[in-house]
């Protein structure tokens, strides 16, 4: 067979094979890295943060301190999907949603019952957005949130918005919240889902003498059964950290007043919640065990005194946080959720009898045990 005949046969054979003719080069896609949801004038507003990955990739040519431009797109519609789709009309490039790392909800959309349900449904259905996306609420304008840079002018991908775990590992207060977890908590009876509240502060960092804004988790939005959120400050929720399985490291002053005797680092607390009845009324008992070590000594007090003071501080924080939720019947400690998990039959029985009402005395007992592991390098200054 002649050579040209063989070539023709090969070409005919290859024609039916699929190729990559419709593929896009990575530089020809608009990668959305964060999504913002807002509600105003009876319309849903969607904000998208788009980054050029060539500007944020850590390569040999990467320059720390070089300004990283951020592009923000805005879409409007009667639904979340319509608002997201409206961005396509002016995007110039194909928009890719698979790299969304964070979704930020404005306070306005969190207060709208049906809108929040709609947002949950749209995000859960959209095939490119993953379940392990971080979720936040905010009181700040979404454009201000999405243009925020990190320290050393690093990209938004190097901030609390996209990588909160590093900060949480050193100071555990409000835990990061992921999409897959909020989905399960919204669908589970008795649970009180919690969205971290992200804000911006200029009071801490400066570049030379210029004030530089940085992200801050200043509290959280707790979502009730009607899917309406209510904001609580970090101080309101300081007792929640002792009931968090992911809590790694958190500081307390003992005693908790203007003249503390010492500062302790509390690590990896364990807790259990039991329910019981007293005078035919539902009660809960919270048990907490935590380890600690001395981080700073102001007064020369004994280890036993530090232990008792630490136990009192933790107990008071748990009680205070529980009571902060009573005016709005917000179960800040998820006591009723724990009841449903352990005894759903009893939960339904009490619900039918309208006895799932939180009162001051519903939190019956809080028992705390603190084990001080060591006192640092200056062991000789502390006497048991």
From TrEMBL:
Chief localization: membrane
InterPro entries linked to this entry: GerAC_N (IPR057336), Spore_GerAC-like (IPR008844), Spore_GerAC-like_C (IPR046953), Spore_GerAC_C_sf (IPR038501)
Membrane topology: Lipid-anchor
Subcellular location(s) of the protein: Membrane
Region forming the signal peptide: 1-21
Spore germination GerAC-like C-terminal domain span: 219-376
Coiled coil: none
UniProt keyword terms in alphabetical order: Germination, Lipoprotein, Membrane, Palmitate, Signal
Residue span(s) of domain Spore germination protein N-terminal: 22-199
Keyword set includes Signal: yes
NCBIfam families: spore_ger_x_C
Family: Belongs to the GerABKC lipoprotein family.
Record protein name field: Ger(X)C family spore germination protein
Source organism of this protein record: Paenibacillus radicis
């Amino acid at each position: 067979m002649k050579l040209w005949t063989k070539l023709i046969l090969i070409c005919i054979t290859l024609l039916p094979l699929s190729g990559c003719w419709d593929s896009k080069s990575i530089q020809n896609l608009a990668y959305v890295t964060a999504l913002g949801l807002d509600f105003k004038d009876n319309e849903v507003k969607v904000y998208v943060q788009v980054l050029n990955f060539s500007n944020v990739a850590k390569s040999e040519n990467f320059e720390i301190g070089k300004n990283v431009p951020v592009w923000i797109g805005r879409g409007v519609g009667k639904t979340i999907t319509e608002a997201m789709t409206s961005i396509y009309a002016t995007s110039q490039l194909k928009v890719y949603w698979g790299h969304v790392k964070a979704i930020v909800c404005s306070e306005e959309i969190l207060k709208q019952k049906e809108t929040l349900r709609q947002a949950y449904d749209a995000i859960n259905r959209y095939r490119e957005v993953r379940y392990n996306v971080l979720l936040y609420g905010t009181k700040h304008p979404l454009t201000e949130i999405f243009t925020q840079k990190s320290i050393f002018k690093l990209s938004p991908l190097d901030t609390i918005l996209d990588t909160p775990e590093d900060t949480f590992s050193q100071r555990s207060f409000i835990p990061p919240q992921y999409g897959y977890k909020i989905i399960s908590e919204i669908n589970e009876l008795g649970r009180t889902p919690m969205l971290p509240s992200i804000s911006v502060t200029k009071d801490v960092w400066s570049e030379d003498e210029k004030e530089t804004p940085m992200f801050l988790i200043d509290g959280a939005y707790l979502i009730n059964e009607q899917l309406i959120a209510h904001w609580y400050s970090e101080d309101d929720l300081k007792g929640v950290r002792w009931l968090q399985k992911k809590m790694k490291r958190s500081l307390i002053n003992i005693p908790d007043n203007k003249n503390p005797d010492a500062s302790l680092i509390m690590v990896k607390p364990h807790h259990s919640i039991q329910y019981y009845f007293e005078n035919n009324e539902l009660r809960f008992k919270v048990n907490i065990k935590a380890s600690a070590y001395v981080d700073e000594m102001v007064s020369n007090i004994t280890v036993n005194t530090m232990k008792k003071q630490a136990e009192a501080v933790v107990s008071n924080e748990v009680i205070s946080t529980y009571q902060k939720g009573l005016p709005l019947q917000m179960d800040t400690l998820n006591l009723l959720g724990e009841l449903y998990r352990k005894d759903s039959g009893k939960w339904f029985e009490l619900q039918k009898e309208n006895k799932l009402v939180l009162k001051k005395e519903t939190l019956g007992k809080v028992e705390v045990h603190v084990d001080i592991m060591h006192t640092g390098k200056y062991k000789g200054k502390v006497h048991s």
